[in-house]
Design goal:
44% of the residues lie in helices and 13% in strands. It is an alpha/beta fold. It has one domain: Rossmann fold, CATH 3.40.50. Strand 5, helix 5 and strand 6 form a beta-alpha-beta unit. The longest helix is centred in the middle third of the chain and has 23 residues. The two termini are 24 Å apart.
Length: 283
């Protein structure tokens, strides 16, 4: 049986490297991308590079809940099993923007979209056990805070604070899901890949865009930044680890105090289910 991987955000940076190496490991790879044409070009390159023809592309805009639902339906239609889900896609914005569903853009793209996608695929993943879910978070979560009375950040918006909040949500969700999956044969872990030279620097910030080429000289390469992700996705050492946060050196380390707060994990879980229409409990 061919093992199947679903991975988001493969058209740039560590997602490109991860998709290629997972295909090289023999997985059927389903790449969920916003730019379908670019995804097809990458698909052709991966097939040529690895010799693995089992690579396909589906369209996904994580900022749109309708797009996430459509993507999940398309994945389920072509994937009889899912052994690996990599929630890699993420973004930063220097300006406050709301999605078509009325959510703050980074919270929607970095958390609500991945939450809904994962929950929509979870029954298939559990049925395919042993299986793994890998969430790309960030050490930025250590400074993340939640104001549940201002979810759209209408009262006060700061780009980095909003990004930190979305990354805290990644770790909170990982830990809440891990508890629910205990004993199912499915593990879920998250990681900080390092400060990687990718396209995550917001294009809507003239200052950051100006300094981006210089800053990237001091960042990790995508190949280096993918090591921890690939270790969690493919390595034998991680197969029995569940609910952990890993640093860029591939070591399981304590997450922030907020991320380990079970009451906060559960509050975010209930809110995320309410905002996305996902089932409150795992099926």
């Amino acid at each position: 049986m061919i093992r199947t991987c679903v991975i988001t955000g493969t058209t740039h940076g560590i997602g490109t490297v991860a998709a290629r190496e997972i295909a090289r490991a023999g997985y059927r790879v389903i790449m969920a991308v916003r730019d379908h044409a670019r995804g097809q070009r990458l698909r052709d390159d991966i097939v040529d590079t690895t010799g693995n023809g089992e690579v396909s592309v589906v369209t996904l805009d994580l900022a749109s809940l309708a797009s996430v639902r459509d993507c999940a339906a398309n994945v389920l239609a072509i994937a009889p099993n899912i052994h690996l889900l990599v929630n890699n896609a993420g973004m930063m914005s220097a300006k406050r923007e709301l999605t078509i569903d009325g959510h703050e853009l980074m919270f929607a793209t970095n958390h609500l979209g991945p939450f809904l996608l994962t929950q929509s695929l979870l029954e298939r993943i559990v049925a395919s056990a042993p299986a793994r879910i890998v969430n790309v978070a960030s050490r930025a979560h250590f400074h993340g805070q939640f104001d549940f009375d201002d979810l759209t950040l209408a009262r006060h918006f700061a780009g980095m604070a909003a990004y930190r909040r979305s990354k805290l949500a990644n770790v909170l969700y990982t830990k809440a899901l891990a508890r629910r999956l205990e004993g199912s044969g499915v593990t879920v872990n998250c990681l900080h890949p390092g400060v990687v030279a990718t396209n995550i620097i917001p294009a809507n910030s003239p200052i950051l865009s100006f300094f981006a080429p210089l800053a990237k000289k001091f960042m990790l390469s995508p190949d280096r930044g993918t090591r921890t992700l690939l270790s969690l996705a493919l390595g034998t050492d991680a197969e029995d680890i569940n609910g952990a946060y890993f640093n860029q050196d591939g070591k399981a380390v304590p997450a922030s105090a907020a991320a380990c707060d079970e009451a906060l994990q559960e509050r975010l879980w209930r809110l995320s289910a309410e905002l996305t229409g996902a089932p409150l409990e795992c099926r």
